Structure prediction request, 207 residues.
Amino acid sequence: MAQITTGLRRVLNDPRIYVVTQRLLTSEARTRRWVDEILRPRAGQRVLDIGCGPADLLRFLPAVVYVGFDSSAEYIAAARARFGTRGRFEHARVDEAALEDLGLFDLVIARGVLHHLDDTEAEQLFRLARRALRPAGRVVTLDACWAEGQHPLARMLIARDRGQNVRDAAGYRALAARVFDDVHAEVRHDLMRVPYTHCSLEASVPP
Ligand SMILES: C[S@@+](CC[C@H](N)C(=O)[O-])C[C@H]1O[C@@H](n2cnc3c(N)ncnc32)[C@H](O)[C@@H]1O
Prediction:
């Protein structure tokens, strides 16, 4: 079983297989629900997507000014090939230097990233997001999450995720609260076709 899991994780590094797997597991309507209810992007906003992967989320965004960063060269190449003119895609980990010339953003997204980061890295991500946001700007995250009473299949799938730092909602919330005063955590069981549990955080900068 461990070998199969390792093999699957390696295969998911291929952007095409990653996108197809995500589309099989979730659905347009479910992703749209999260976008409409929690992400709430508006046309014309400046959006920074940290750990954007192949940037499939762009399909669900209105006409925003989009900048995506990812540490995987393959994912960034796939994003550029597919969405070239719709955004700027950078092969890099986001750090202070990378943000220097980018200006401020209305919305910072980190979808499926926190559960890959240890606590120090996650705190750094929130510090960078805080620095990148304009007054009243928001950071929104979405990650697999442990929850009491969650479906056993959800626990099994999450335990096999490539991310080794899955937390419960309180754990995710505490990380954002190191940097932001205003943090809201929402646990969702309805974002995949299969039993699965997510935690979406929303934190904002004062107006
Ligand atoms: C599960 S994927 C999510 C991709 C995309 N956000 C999505 O929702 O489809 C996590 C991504 O985070 C990227 N990543 C992890 N840590 C990162 C970091 N410190 N800086 C930039 N990208 C990072 C990985 O390369 C990977 O593409």
Summary: The two ends are 50 Å apart (CA to CA).
